[in-house]
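Note to self: keep these together.
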Amino acid sequence: MQYSSRFLELNIPDSFLNVNKIPDATKFIAIIYICLTTSLFCIRRSLYSKLLLEDPNVDYGLITSPILQMVPSQIWKYPTSLVLSNFIDTKAWKVAVNLLNLVIGGSFIERNWNSSKEMFKFIVVLGSLTNLLIIVLTLLTSFTSKKVTLDVPLDGNYTILIGFPIIYRQLLPETTIINLKTPHFLAKNFRFKLLPIFVMFVMTITQIIWFHHFAQLFSIWITFFASWSYLRFFQRLAPLNCPSLPTADPQNVQETLIGDASDTFQLIYFFPDLIKPLLRPIFNFVYDVIVLKFRIIKPFHDVDIDIGNSIAESRGAKRVTTVEERRRQLALDVLEERMVNA
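Structure:
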């Protein structure tokens, strides 16, 4: 889909908007999402109507359903909420955004992955494990900070809102979404690779300035790091239809396609250039401890990185040039110039 005016250009690939046939996992998750979100709304409205007869000043926002909603103080009684909260939302804007994101974006992702199992694992399994980690961190933090309350439900359905932009960046890195033409000082190509950090910035600022919900802030960033970590190190997909892949034994190729070892998918490249010098030593230290020292995560080999780079470049990603490569290329250029002049 393309749209052009004097102010902006909108460009979204037709393959992204193709929802003629919604894949199986996306369809199943969308149906469950609609059913459980609608059920939660009906339950809360019913309780609100009953309580309103007893107390005219009752606050609808304080009415919860711990079976479906992830309430830290009630998690021991209702552990099912760790899973079911992946399928519910209480805010109208988030219902609309997530449903649209799931139907359109989920269909695009599942077709590219060619795996209903991976779609289910990413949204439900990874989402549930992330929710468990969020609950544990919230309970621990509540002992040291009074600002963290345990009776307010946490949003357990950030995987679609935060995780999907990371996947869009992976599959469509250099594709332009919006090209602002005017005013000139704001002229900018907004590409899919900028979408994750844009979403994180907006949601972080919103929580800090307006809602002051610090436990919810944990949810946002834990979901971001969990989603990236899974895609980077653990996801298993069938060999991709990429002409640059080696034509080796299919079983061996399958083993090399665990995660995304491409240079462009490094965590540091999700953040603005301005703060990269501050983040790089932190990320390098964490990588050295988790991957190189304790081997909690298997490190990538050169062949993994080469295959990851080939796949990323086939998707349109620009090759990352390291300092050593730039120096080597500069030396070759100087040598070639001297040979020509000689």
